[in-house]
Automatic annotation (TrEMBL):
<keyword id="KW-0560">Oxidoreductase</keyword>
<keyword id="KW-0285">Flavoprotein</keyword>
<keyword id="KW-0274">FAD</keyword>
<comment type="pathway">
    <text>Siderophore biosynthesis.</text>
</comment>
<keyword id="KW-0521">NADP</keyword>
<keyword id="KW-0503">Monooxygenase</keyword>
<comment type="similarity">
    <text>Belongs to the lysine N(6)-hydroxylase/L-ornithine N(5)-oxygenase family.</text>
</comment>
<dbReference type="InterPro" id="IPR025700">
    <property type="entry name" value="Lys/Orn_oxygenase"/>
</dbReference>
<dbReference type="Pfam" id="PF13434">
    <property type="entry name" value="Lys_Orn_oxgnase"/>
</dbReference>
<dbReference type="InterPro" id="IPR036188">
    <property type="entry name" value="FAD/NAD-bd_sf"/>
</dbReference>
<protein>
    <recommendedName>
        <fullName>L-lysine N6-monooxygenase MbtG</fullName>
        <ecNumber>1.14.13.59</ecNumber>
    </recommendedName>
</protein>
Amino acid sequence: MYRFSETGRCWRLIVIGGGSAAAIQVRQGDVPPQDTLVIGDRLGTGMEYLDNFTLQSYADELRLSRCQEAPRLGTTGQLRPSAAQFDAYVRESLLSSGATVRNARVPEVEGEQGKFLIHVLNGDGRMSYERAEAVVLATGSTPRIPPPRWADAGAVSHDVVHRERSRHQTSRWAGRTVLVVGSGNSAMQVASLVASEADEVVVLGNRYIGMFPTENPDKYSWRAPSQLACELVAKSAMECGQPGWHTTCVRHLVYDRLDVHDGEITWTYQAQNNQNPLGSRSLSGRCRHAQGRLIGAGGLAWEESRRVSETAVVWATGSEPVLPGGPLIKSLARDTDGSLLTDEAGRTSVDGVHALGACAGQRAVNETTPALVRRRLPLSELLAGRDVPVDAEVPA
């Protein structure tokens, strides 16, 4: 059934999302703000749960526009700004951009008569519709939640730790073993956050990332607050169990297998996979907490276990895109990590639908580039040179 937009207008561009990617699109894109409608169920970064947690920025990495100043919250070389300050900056950037901004949720996007019909669920529960010539998805991502059997054992995603910590609620991990599953910055930050109250902290990653730039040239590897966890690992190995030493033991291991069964959590690891500055200090026998059982041939692999009732498990294995529903969005080709497949202009596998930011696999503000929507190309040209077929399957 044909549905007219609420205003009768067909927008040149509708941007779905209200965070930093949406602000970059409006301020740096090729469609004038006055011809753009922004619809976001939340205006800001979505990092409000981090509150006064300082972000890993040293200079102008968080600027949303070359023509707009970022918050001047310190000098170059200092960590800045806080999550709350950056959230306010992003929100103000959108509201002052000249675009029309609506605070509402988009449950579905449809293709209709060569254009797009946007379903808009308003705060009062009323559904309305907007039409556009082009759509940009700037919908961001959300932390991955633990698999069902781990959730049943009480595991939570890493954002829960930040939220509870900001409310001074530490009972989840106080006096307990904390297993942090993940190998990135989020995992390392959680390890530092809970260390003051936990009995022990073990970061279990599927690989060793290393610090930028001495061990890893990737600028998104461990930096800033994450290095606090690295130092805790090194000091724990030297001091855990020594007289007068009361700081929580923190370890980091590259694991082979992780399982929960009959009220017990078990993980295995090998010495050969932990010959790095952190793993070598975390192997069995290095401290009173690291008491593993030798398994396999050669005596170079260990197994450790903890009771579920005495353990808090935090899932920090990355994030996944947050997207509207409906067949059109589900048909978009995806990359192996679940993010939307786009070309250098932000075009997806559906003509007229673009994406940028976290939902398109861009990992940081200074890696996010606006989608260019004025010229459309055939799908075959979009995917030319990629190892993804035109009829790429969409993950369930």
